[in-house]
Each structure stands twice: as structure tokens, then as C-alpha cells.
Write a structure and sequence with these properties.
15 helices; mainly alpha; 318 residues
């Protein structure tokens, strides 16, 4: 075993033991030892060191290591694929905080020739756009990602992506586009390229999420009757499969329907039931998921109306 190989073995052992600082130091030493005779190995060692530095939250060190790896790779053809180099650069940029730099780095990955990397980059760009309130742009990235979905793809993976696309289009004000995405999701696995059929539980969960999203579309369109029916269907299915997020979303729509119809006691009761149900499922974290919605409900009503609603709710429970 050469000195570089020994250092790599020590780096991996340190990584397995959770001693990340030692792992970085050993990877760097292995890179220096490998560079004269085997520069491609040195690039891989620097890549590893950069990724471990990211794990430690040392963004400056990770950036420096990634830059060294990139410079060495340029002098050592075949040291690493262009895709892996772009992805590492984007991962480092992602931890730096500058959103323009982060977007530019992931956009460079999209321009590469590696389909799995492009798919990952499109999902990350959609996240960044959504976080910035650019929902139409997020929808565009997700639409492109559908064409890059790694093959073979399961129907559930395609369905989840279509649900994300529907949510993005809805947030962008494109309700018809949101419904088209849901129709595609509902048609799975019969339509679209896919390999594995959905099993019964996955199909039920996908159906619950589709119903939940359709309830939100119906609510925004002012069709309260349809919104209530769809949200109730989604909530019931979510209960059967312990799907907390779908349960929360459906309960929120149900409460909103009651509030818009001036059934304030029913709206409050829906929030309270959701809070207690999620607390049973998730503990205090579940209770905290519903807390902000109840606080906003109270603010919308104001002190007098909320007090009257609460008193009526208490009386109804006796």
C-alpha cells in the first residue's frame, strides 16, 4: 500500500468514526501525496475533503478545497466528470448564502450533459425560486424536471413531482395549469413513462394528496361545497395512512370553508381537532404545526368575535 493509499484509508476510518476534522486533514494529505504521479486520485481526495468540510459547516474551507480540485482537474483529464465538478461547485455555493451565486451555480449544472445531475439541479432551482416567491419560475423548473426524471422512474416519484408542479402553478395563479398537473398525477400509473405500479397504500396516499390539492383549487375558485367535500376526503385518507402534512392541509381548507361561510364554531373546532390529532401523532411538534393557524384565526376575528366563538364552542362541547 502506498503512502497516499494509507492516508486515504486513515481518512475513511476517521470519517466512519465521526472525526471529521481528522478526515479532512487526511484527505488533503492524500491529495498532496497523490498529485505528482496520480493527479486524478488527488482530485477525488480533494473532492472528498471539500464535501466533509461542507458537513462541518466550514464553507470557506470547502470552497477553497473545491477550487483546488477544479484547478487540478483541468490539468488531469479524466480526473472527474464535468458533471461532478459542477455539482460540487453548486453544493459549495449553496452554503454561502448569496442567492444569485447559488442560482448561477445550479444553472451551470442544468447546462451539463448528465441527466441525473440536471434533474437534481432543476429541483434545487425550483426550491430557490419558490423561496423567493417566484412561483411561475419554480413551475417552469419543475416542468423541465419532469422530462429529466431519472429512468426507470416509479409512478409515485412522478406523481409527487406532478403534485409539486400543481402547487407551484397554483401559487403562480395558474389554476387551470394546476388542475392539468393533478389530472396527470391521477392518471398514474396508466399514463406516462414509469416502471413500477403503485401499491395500494401509495395509491391511496397519492389520491389523498390529489384530493387535498383539488380542494385548495376549488376554494380559491369560490366553490365551497366542492372544496369541503374534497378536503374531507383527503383528511379521511390521511388519517388512515398517518399522513400528517396532508391531514394538516386538508384541515386548513375545511376550517377556511367554515370561516368563509361564517360557521366560526365549526372552523375553530376543526383547528382544535387538528391540533390534538397531530399532537397524538407527532407530539408537541404536531401541536405547534397548528398553533400559528389558530393564532391567525383569532386575529382575524378580533377579541370580541373570538371570545363569542370560543364560548359557543365550549357550550357545544358540554
Amino acid at each position: 500500500m502506498t503512502g497516499a493509499e494509507t492516508l486515504l484509508a486513515h481518512a475513511l476510518a476517521a470519517l466512519d468514526a465521526g472525526d471529521l476534522a481528522i478526515a479532512i486533514e487526511r484527505f488533503e494529505r492524500a491529495a498532496r501525496a497523490s498529485e505528482p504521479a496520480r493527479p486524478s486520485d488527488a482530485v477525488h481526495a480533494l473532492d472528498a475533503a471539500a464535501r466533509v468540510a461542507l458537513m462541518c459547516g466550514d464553507h470557506a474551507r470547502a470552497a477553497g478545497l473545491a477550487n483546488r480540485a477544479r484547478e487540478l482537474a483541468a490539468r488531469a483529464p479524466g480526473a472527474a466528470t464535468a458533471a461532478s465538478r459542477l455539482v460540487l461547485t453548486a453544493e459549495v455555493a449553496d452554503r454561502g448564502g448569496d442567492r444569485t451565486v447559488r442560482r448561477t451555480a445550479w444553472e451551470s449544472v442544468v447546462q451539463g450533459d448528465d441527466a441525473p445531475s440536471r434533474y437534481r439541479a432543476l429541483l434545487r432551482l425550483a426550491e430557490l425560486a419558490r423561496d423567493d416567491g417566484e412561483h411561475a419560475l419554480a413551475a417552469l423548473h419543475l416542468t423541465t424536471a419532469l422530462a429529466e426524471l431519472p429512468t426507470p422512474a416509479t409512478a409515485i416519484a412522478r406523481g409527487e413531482l406532478l403534485l409539486e408542479l400543481s402547487s407551484a402553478r397554483m401559487a403562480a395563479g395558474d389554476s387551470s395549469g394546476a388542475e392539468r398537473a393533478l389530472a396527470q398525477a391521477a392518471a398514474l400509473p396508466a399514463d406516462g413513462p414509469t416502471t413500477d405500479p403503485l401499491d395500494g397504500d401509495s395509491m391511496a396516499l397519492l389520491g389523498a394528496r390529489i384530493a387535498g390539492q383539488r380542494s385548495a383549487i376549488a376554494f380559491e375558485a369560490g366553490d365551497l361545497e366542492a372544496a369541503l367535500a374534497l378536503a374531507t376526503t383527503a383528511r379521511d385518507a390521511a388519517v388512515a395512512h398517518d399522513d400528517a402534512l396532508t391531514y394538516l392541509g386538508a384541515s386548513t381548507v375545511i376550517a377556511a370553508v367554515h370561516e368563509r361561510a361564517d360557521r366560526l364554531v365549526d372552523a375553530y373546532d376543526t383547528y382544535i381537532r387538528a391540533r390534538e390529532s397531530l399532537a397524538q401523532l407527532l407530539g408537541d411538534g404536531g401541536r405547534q404545526l397548528v398553533g400559528p393557524a389558530i393564532e391567525l384565526f383569532e386575529r382575524r376575528l378580533g377579541p370580541a368575535r373570538f371570545a363569542a366563538t370560543w364560548n359557543a364552542w365550549v357550550a357545544q362541547r358540554k
